[in-house]
Amino acid sequence: MKSATLNHYSLLILAVTGMTHAHGTIDVFTADGVSYAGPESMDVDPESLPSDSPVRQIYTLEPILSTVVDLASSNMTCGPAPASSAPVTASVTAGSTISFHYRSGNNGVWPHDVGPVITYMYRCTKAEACMPSAGDAGWFKIDQQGMDEKGVWAQTAMMRNESINVVVPSTVPDGDYLVRHEVIALQNAVNRGQAEFYVSCTQVRVKGGSSGSGSLDGVEMVAFPGAYAEDDPGLFVPDLYDHDGKAFPYAFPGPAIFGATPAIAVASPSPSARVLSTAIAATRTAPVPSLTPVRASCTRRKQSTGRASVRQQRLVQGRLNPASLR
Questions:
Q1: CB 203 within 8 A of CB 56
Q2: pTM for the predicted model, two decimal places
Q3: Considering the chain, what is the average pLDDT of its residues?
Q4: Cis ω on the peptide bond leading into residue 225 (within 30° of 0)?
Q5: Distance between CA atoms of 34 and 296, rounded to whole angstroms?
Q6: Which of 34, 56, 95, 276 is close enough to 170 for a disulfide, judged by CB 3.0 to 4.6 Å?
Q7: Can you give the pLDDT at residue 291?
Q8: Mean per-residue pLDDT for 94-104?
Q9: What is the DSSP letter of 32?
Q10: pLDDT digits (tens, 9 = 90+) for 18-60
């Protein structure tokens, strides 16, 4: 077992390292072969506006902490002071894979490699006018990615500039949804209230799924805020660094997964001990493609030629170039 002193110094090093990077948000969202640039956050450029993106604008790249106050904040729904709508809604085929790529606001590369990535969905009447209220328990979990059998976290792939792939359940009813992307950075989670949430919502329209809503009957659903507590074992992990870098039974916060398939199955469905299986580790991520179709049919909001060029670069390159393109 590592000493408390060693943990303390490890945290100091991690904290200093984290301070050298700006935090981040979704850079590119891909569905049905189309890649969409994520909007800038307001603390990157106060003049920036969402363009042809289904990803909701957020106010800041800074994280939401796992304190009692922050977990009860409306920021837990779709990120820090999110926009109530995005310009477009992405088409998604049920049973297909969506992917999302994160960037940091400083050097472009995601700075954290400890912690899970979790994805939820919320059914809407119309995605463009959808914002669940506090206490609205309509969010259901479709994916959770923790660590592989070697103890390597999903966020390590993000640090390697790779996208996170998520399979949309084939039985999800057709219709409009918000997809809630949740990255939980745990590097400071040995202290209560210091897990870091990076939350974002994307508007999607599902096709090719079930025709009714019956497949959602009996599905465990939660509200954001309200789904998590400060002392949840997946958010307060005092023994995080006591495993010598090996896999351990990490307890994902939140409900059980809906519509899991063998490719993304969790080794144990019990909330008390969910660790990703070997099969997931082999399929959970893929490099961002170097060339992807770019959606250009929607009307782009007015912005400078330079800013438009930067957004086009981010889409075409898929952030394979770790140098900042902004």
A1: yes
A2: 0.77
A3: 77
A4: yes
A5: 10
A6: 95
A7: 33
A8: 95
A9: T
A10: 343 458 999 899 999 999 998 877 776 655 555 689 999 999 9
pLDDT at 316: 39
Vertex 280, ends 279 and 282: CA angle to 5°? 70
What is the DSSP-derived secondary structure letter of residue 22? -
Instruction: For residue 285, name the pLDDT band (cuts at 50, 70, 90).
Output: very low
Q: Produce one character per residue of 276-285: b if its CB has 16 or more CB atoms within 10 Å, e if not.
A: beeebbeebb
Other beta carbons within 10 angstroms of residue 269's beta carbon come to 11
Asked if residues 123 and 44 have their Cβ atoms less than 8 Å apart, the reply is: no
Torsion of CA 326, 156, 141, 75, to 10 degrees: -50
Determine the Cα–Cα distance for residues 226 and 257; give it in Å rounded to an integer: 18
Q: Name the DSSP class of 97.
A: E
Burial per residue of 157-174, b for 16 or more beta-carbon CB atoms within 10 angstroms, e otherwise? bbbebbbbbbbbbeebbe
Please measure the distance between the N-terminal and C-terminal CA atoms of the chain and give it in whole angstroms. Answer: 44
| List of residues 6+ apart from 174 with CB closer than 8 A | 94, 206, 207, 208, 209, 210, 211
Q: Is residue 10 within a helix (H) or strand (E), and if so which, with residue range?
A: helix 4-19
Q: Considering only CA atoms, which of 117, 109, 161, 124 is closest in space to residue 141? A: 117
Tally of residues, the chain: 326
